Amino acid sequence: MVMLKNLRTQIDRLDDEILSLLNERMRLVQSIGELKNKQNSTIYRPERERAILSRLEELSRTQKGRLEREAIEAIYGEIFAVSRNLEKAQGVAYLGPEGSYTHQAAHLRFGALSSYLALAGIEDVFKALRNKQAKFGIVPVENNTAGAVGLTLDCLAKYEEIKIFGEIYMDIHHSFVSLNDDIKGIRRIYSHPQGYHQCRLFLESHHLDGVEFIASKSTANAAFLASKDRDGAAICSKIAAKLYKVPLLYERIEDNAANRTRFLILSDENFALCEGCKTSIFVHTRDEAGALADLLLVFKKAQINLTKLESRPVKNPSGTEFSHSFYMDFEGHIEEERVRGALEEVRAHKLLWLGSYLAERG
Fold it and tell me: Which pTM does this prediction carry?
């Protein structure tokens, strides 16, 4: 016990030092915020944060430390979020409700101290940004199993003043939560039907497939319902379980462990040129044979790597006929010379620039 007490005393001393250093860091952050606000410059700088993480990862490796990239990101992600809010309060609109996976993605990037606005629909997020109700917006744009979110793509074309400022890739994990820590005592399972069916193998293996299933309007609502029912359980996100204070019995129960969603960070602000960027555009090609092939050839000649090509129908307002435009992601920033040159050629088609931003690891 004496040894344990000594170790805890050392940890307390280190915690005191860490807190003192964090307070010193935040004083410097506030000074930077004052300068940025005077110059009206961007508060959120993902490229700077990524450079810090890379430097710290290398330092930890040199020190033969216990912290790897994922752990460093988890710790410093919250430090970055707190720092941004000290520089200037961050207002973030997202596709709700509270406890949704989009809420979890927003929380992952903007932390606990940001001001969040949960909205009922994807277009509502775009409207909130247009009306200056928030500085940033978070919406899903594609899932590796369900494909593209068409409404997000359509809103990007409709709200031209709103640009893509960044992206977040997040693994989608369903959790099994309950106030009852004895799984044999669970009599009801609350879940959105989609979440329930994505966890059938878990339910069968734990003899829960015969338990009464009660459909909820969302996985967040499922967590709320389980928080009021001692004999109930919910299939929901971790953030929903935390929000409604329902203990996690099993953290990851989905059948498909590779379920991954890409979210967009939206803003009325443009992202500055830096290395490792991605650009998104909409192109409406000419209605003739070989038009798409000609478009793709432009990027091939410029040696620009396309990372996504998605067609979207464009209805003709004069009738029922419709043509197609193409949503495209490619490597590079719009201010790069090779990208500018390629887009000048593409302007022979109808072109809409949606944003250039730091590419995340997919």
Answer: 0.81
